[in-house]
Structures are given as structure tokens and as C-alpha cells.
Amino acid sequence: PADIRDAAQARVRSAPAPVTDVARLCVCDLLVAQCDISCCCDPDCSAEDFSLFTTCSVPVVTGDSQLCSQKAAVYSLDVEANPPERIFKIIDQVNPSIFCIHATNYKQALYLKSPEIPTPENFDQLLDKFGGATFSTEPDSWNVDTDAQNPPDANETSRYEYGVPVQTEDAFLRLPSPVVSSWCSDANPAGFLVNQATKCIRSVSVEKCDSIQALSMLFYINSSILAVPRSSQMVNITVQSIVVQSLNGMRTLLSSSDVLRLPIVLDELCINAVLGVNYHITHTDTGEIIEAAAAFVLGAISKEKLSIEQSFEISFTQENTQPVPLSGNPGYVVGLPVRAGFQSQGYPFPAAFLSNKHSQLTILHSTSTQDCLAAQGARAPVLFGYNMISGCKLRITAAMKCQPLAQTLLDVLKGQNFPEYVASFGNSQAQDVLDWVPITQLHISEQMLSHTLQSSCQIPVSLGIEVKWTKYGSLVNPQARIVNVTATITTTTLKQLPSGRERIIPITSSVVFTDISSPAEPSYKAWPTIDIKLPFDFFYPFV
To answer: One Pfam family from the UniProt entry (predicted)?
Structure first.
């Protein structure tokens, strides 16, 4: 179409000077100081060599094919001339694709720049430039007219996206964190939907504690959050709760959080200093922030202390939903519960929020009495990476009926709602169908010796859960992923007891985690070893 052609021609007119000289490029020049046959761009070839060519092996030489417009060197042969001669010309080539690079104006990316080595003289300068959580590598000038392409009133986005810094009226919501060392840096932005928890060291002085901004509650709530990026709608940060911590570590929740408590110096103590902040952000399903709250931990600082440890945390919850605890991001963390769920009717995916308590895989929780009938309903979460075993004792009398007893023991072992699926990752969402692993249930029967006669029945006596997991992703930072879960119920034959007789049967429940990761294949061949003896002072003066 004419409008697309005009736009392409406009891009050609505004394109910067090419960085690569295509006239000097020659991909078929393989021989050094010799003419390559049929290589029309070889500078070692003379006019006599070109007269012997019948074709050009590389007729067109270009730079980056992803550019919207670039110079192209075109080579051909005039076979009608006597003798035949080479024809060379430079043309402007336009990329017809709408997905193309307008200009390679970031010249720093076109070559490898040696990093600046830190020295005692430039360390402070490098720390100021790169010490923050974010820093700019934008060149001093750009060749693209961004003001014309993006007018000031253009609404680039009307919602937050994952990882985008939460904006405030002055900059962004800060979540202090350690950067180069353990000291706090206030330049760490809080990313949307990115749950974070940090701890860092803050330098303090009791005499000046009332003037240190990072110790005051106002520093963390005085800037309103933008409901959506680049908007005028503000969301104020409210104080959800205030906990006061004494010098010995005892904490007390204040009944009222309406009054701000600012740090002051009293009897050589700095009281009401911020020791921890917990942000909680509520958002809609369209990426709009509608509520923000902060919970504070305030404490006292003695005159002897020169620094304190501060903790910061931020979490996000969608409105009208219940928060689901995660067990890793993405891979499981050792010691956190294994997340589980079941597929309820009406849901096309495993609905973890409809599962048992806290959406966790659980086993029988041992009690002090060791009575199986009294332990019914007591469950313990299965913690990733921890092999576990628990159990109880069942006292059987002649008056007990077989079928109700078997169902009761099954409920003791599996619980009321035994899940059907297990999350393969610690952060698997309910709607991600492929992130849920079905639990394979097996039944094994064994015989139990008894000297009694008459009828018999099968009762479950043990539940064994095997969780197979593997290391997923990069070898530098592998993530734990569950790939298979098997739950095996073992039953035994119980014959009817005569009147007045009793029998005690142990009931057990166990969990075993098995790592089935394949060992990493080395990318190099082992070097041959040499069996020699080095001189005793070979490494002198090093040990």
C-alpha cells in the first residue's frame, strides 16, 4: 500500500549513517593474498581474474538483514564486454518486514568494551554509578526522534505488568535491600507482583536518629502510589498495624495505628525507630492497584549501637481472592510444604484453592497417646526434601466391625480429602494445567498370620508416598521440580477375633523423596594425567 511505502521511504530518509561499510565486506574471500575463484568482492582479484569468471558466487553483500534500511553491495559480470568485466554498485535496500530495526544507534552494543577495573581511586565513582539496583546505560545522544514518535500525551500503558516498578508520585516504591555489601540501599524498586523479602544493615547514630529518614515511618508512606503507570489517580499507603519491640526483643501490638510514631531521643535511647516494614498491595485482575497498606515494627536503639538490621517485605493479592502460599519461585525450597490440590467438578484445571487445608500434601500426625482412633483428623504437612515417617497403634477387639474399621483407618492414613494432584513447581498456579502432576495410587495386599478362625477382611495398615523430583533449568541455579508422585496403600488380612481377645496393630505413614536428576554431561574431554613427582620446592613460596 501507498501509506506503508511512504512510511518505509520516510524511515530511509531519517536513518543514520551505516555503521558497517558493506563495500569492505567479503564473505567468500578465504585465501590470503590470493584471488578466490568466482569471488567478485575479493580485493586480491585483478581485472584479468574477473574476465575469467563466469558468475559471482556472492552477488549481494549486506550488513544486518534485520535493519529496516541499509546499504547493499551488488556484484555482477558484464559478459558482453570484451573481455568480460565486473560491475560493482551500492544500492539502498529496504526491508519489507514490519518487524525491523530502524536504527542501530546504540553504538556501545556493536563492540566489546573492556570493563573498568575497580581501583582504590575509582571505587567510589563506580559504586555511585553501579551500586544501585538499577542504573542507566543509555548513550548520550539518540538518533531517533522519540518526541515525534511518542507525544507527551500518548497513553503507553493503562495497567501494571509483571516486574514493572510500582510508581509513586515522586519516583517508585522503594524496598531497601543490600546491593554490594550488607548495607541498605534505598534505590531498589518494588516490582509489580514480585513478592520480595530483604534484610540489610543501616548505619545509625542515636544523637541524630530523629533526622535519619530511613528510621521514620513517614519515609515509607509519605508518597502515594499511582493506580496505573503514568496516571493522576493516587492510592495512599495506610498504616495497617504497628508493633513495638523492646530492647530485649519482646514485641507488643498497639491497639491503635492511627497516630504516627516518629523517632525521638529519650534517655540516651532512640525510640520509635523503624526496624521492619511489610507492604501489602491489593490489585485488580486488570493490573490496577486499588489499595496499599504497610505494617511497621518499631523499636528502641541504645547509644552503644552503631548500626541496626532492618527487614522489608512486600506481597501482592488480587481483590476478592484468597492468597495461596507458595513453596518456591519457581522451584521448590527444601523445608517448605508440597502444594497439592484436586480437580473438582466444574473446573477444567486442578483447583488448588479447593483442596485440603492450606492446599498442602499431608500425612498422619503422630500424637502422644499413639491411638489411631484418637488421631483421626490430625495431619502434618509434607515438607519438600524431608523424608518423614509417622504412625499410631490400633487396638482391635472382637466387637469391631470390619468394614467401618477399614474405612476409619483409610481416613486416618489419607485424610478426609486426599489430593489428586501435586504442583510440579513451588509457584504453580491453578490455571496452569501442565504444572500439576497426578498422584498415582497403588494398593498392595499382604497376609497376616493369625491363629483365629472364621471370617476375615482387608484393612489398610500403611501409606507410603514416594516423591520423585529432578533439577530443572540452569546448572548454575537449578530449580527443584516434582515429576512423579506415587501413593501406595498396603492392606493386610485381619481374621475375626474370639470374644474377649484383643490385638494391637501398628499403622504407619511415610514419605520418601528421590532425586532422579541425570548427572551433567561434561562439555570437554578429560585431560590425560601424567604420573610424575614434582620437586619439593616447586610451589615455593606458596604452600
So the answer is: DUF1619_N
